[in-house]
Hints:
Elements: E1 2-9, E2 13-20, E3 25-29, H1 35-44, E4 47-52, H2 58-61, H3 64-70, E5 75-79, E6 89-91, E7 96-99, E8 102-108, E9 117-125, E10 128-134, E11 137-138, E12 141-142, H4 150-161, E13 168-171, H5 176-186, H6 191-205, E14 213-214, H7 215-221, H8 230-243, H9 250-262
Parallel strand pairs: 3-4, 4-5, 5-6, 10-13
Antiparallel strand pairs: 1-2, 2-3, 7-8, 8-9, 9-10, 11-12, 13-14
Helix pairs in contact: 4-9, 5-6, 8-9
Amino acid sequence: MFRIYPIPAFSDNYIWCLADTSTGKALVVDPGQSQPVKDYLKHSGLTLDTILVTHHHPDHIGGIAELRETHPNIRIVGPEGSPFTNVTETVSHGDHLEWQTIRFSVMATPGHTLDHIVYYTETQVDGAPVLFSGDTLFIGGCGRLFEGTPDQMHRSLNSLRALPDNTAIYCAHEYTLANLRFARHWLPDDAGLIEFEQDCNLLRQAGKPTVPSSLQNEKALNLFLRWDDPAVIKAAEAYGAEHGLPVTNPAEVFAAVRHGKDHF
């Protein structure tokens, strides 16, 4: 039986721990810090044998060197061609990897960084297929474009939008309320956003994560996936007219939304 647990790190990161409760083996995704992982493993009685890396930013890989020292035989999987090379295995778009009885598909999602990849499995964990989306797709948002272009990120998100609606989105940050404040600024009368923001506020007040969300929910609410929604198009056109941005196709709608969030 598989379960996924959040390991909080820094001020707003999640290191995801995928556990096989039948064997006690564990896999973690993007361990930016080592100590939270060590503490969680000790508390849970799990044995770490695999690390998955989505991209090279320090808050995603900063704990790997120390974890490798304490787990010398650990498997570390990361993107091919990445500036981060402290791995035992590289993967690229279209590759598959096995962990226990789970088979992950690797998808390239350049935009936030050029080396960014995500890991998807059809195997249902806690009742849903799983996407470890790193900093490409957030709940209510997407990653800032540090290296890629809006066109690249639009294509990356479009590939994720094609996954099954019940896919659970396990992103790497608790950015949801900030993303929803921006979304509500653009679409103040969107009833779905109003209700979702209320629900997420209650979760955070209770000390619970807003992650994961479902892809179906994100397609309905996340402005960065709604480039063909008339309400978002209208808001993007108004924003583009004000800021001198062309908004004539879906990629440009996305680019206007991203620009809006960057300057919000």
